[in-house]
């Protein structure tokens, strides 16, 4: 059975068909999986974390990190969550302002990825920006490579959250503003997913619906 991945507007399913005979014909809505939230997330700078907690103790909820996506998949996780920020011109997130408050423990963008146009992957602008896959392109490459190396894996569901709602665009406290979401944003997102994963890895909503008419 060929490998496949599903794309839905705010939720992406990246799946290869299982080689287990007991699940080969299992309807996709009957799978139960274990996953992670903000699956790409790396730890916030300790000094920046301390500064955030001093301002608001609730910031302790951001004090966590994950191992790389492929390592999570190897452990058996089958639901990953990825946040994406539009950056059509490039450079919008090249300077995370939290690093103006504390010295960086390690370089923020050693490979100079942020100036390039394309979707970026991190949790919160200016404060929680460390990511194991700084761009969507890198995230999709990691998923594709893992899937190719494990051709009989069970479905992997990807929850894709596009950031940029109107109520999130305010430039509060001098923070960097998000690029607003438009229909063009989602057209670019569709193209990025197809280019990054390949048609053979995608299950689209139309494929799931088939000939059914509501």
Please describe what this structure looks like.
It contains five helices and four strands; from the N terminus they run ββααβαβαα. It has helices spanning 46-55, 69-74, 136-149, 183-197, 205-209, and strands at 3-7, 11-16, 79-85, 156-163. The chain has a four-stranded mixed sheet with strand order 1-2-4-3, covered by helices on one side. Residues 1-19 have low confidence and may be disordered.
Topology:
Layout: E1 3-7, E2 11-16, H1 46-55, H2 69-74, E3 79-85, H3 136-149, E4 156-163, H4 183-197, H5 205-209
Parallel strand pairs: 3-4
Antiparallel strand pairs: 1-2, 2-4
Helix pairs in contact: 3-4
Keywords for this entry:
23% helix, globular, disordered N terminus, 214 residues, alpha+beta, 5 helices, four-stranded mixed β-sheet
Helix/strand order: EEHHEHEHH
Count of extended strands: 4
Regions with pLDDT < 50 over 5+ consecutive residues? 1-19
Classify the helix fraction into a percent range. Answer: 10-25%
Roughly what is the average pLDDT, rounded to an integer?
Answer: 84
Instruction: Find the structural class using helix and strand composition.
Output: alpha+beta
Helix segment count? 5
Strand fraction equals: 5-15%
Anisotropy-based shape:
globular
What is the gyration radius calculated from CA atoms? 18 Å
Q: What kind of oligomer do you see? A: single chain
Distance between the first and last residues' Cα = 29 Å
Read across the widest sheet, the strand sequence of neighbours is 1-2-4-3
Largest sheet: 4 strands, mixed
């Amino acid at each position: 059975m060929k490998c496949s991945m599903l794309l839905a507007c705010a939720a992406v399913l990246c799946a290869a068909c299982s080689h287990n005979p007991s699940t080969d014909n299992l309807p996709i809505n009957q799978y139960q999986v274990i996953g992670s939230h903000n699956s790409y997330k790396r730890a916030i700078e300790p000094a920046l974390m301390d500064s955030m907690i001093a301002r608001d103790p609730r910031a302790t909820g951001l004090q966590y990190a994950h191992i790389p996506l492929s390592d999570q998949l190897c452990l058996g996780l089958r639901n990953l969550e990825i946040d994406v920020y539009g950056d059509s011109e490039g450079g919008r997130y090249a300077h995370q302002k939290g690093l103006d408050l504390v010295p960086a423990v390690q370089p923020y963008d050693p490979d100079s990825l942020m100036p390039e146009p394309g979707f970026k992957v991190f949790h919160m602008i200016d404060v929680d920006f460390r990511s194991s896959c700084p761009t969507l392109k890198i995230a999709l490459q990691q998923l594709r490579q893992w899937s190719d190396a494990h051709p009989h894996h069970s479905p992997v569901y990807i929850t894709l959250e596009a950031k940029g709602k109107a109520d999130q665009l305010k430039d509060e406290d001098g923070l960097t503003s998000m690029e607003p979401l438009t229909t063009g944003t989602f057209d670019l997102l569709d193209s990025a997913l197809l280019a990054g994963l390949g048609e053979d890895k995608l299950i689209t909503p139309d494929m799931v619906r088939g000939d059914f008419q509501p």
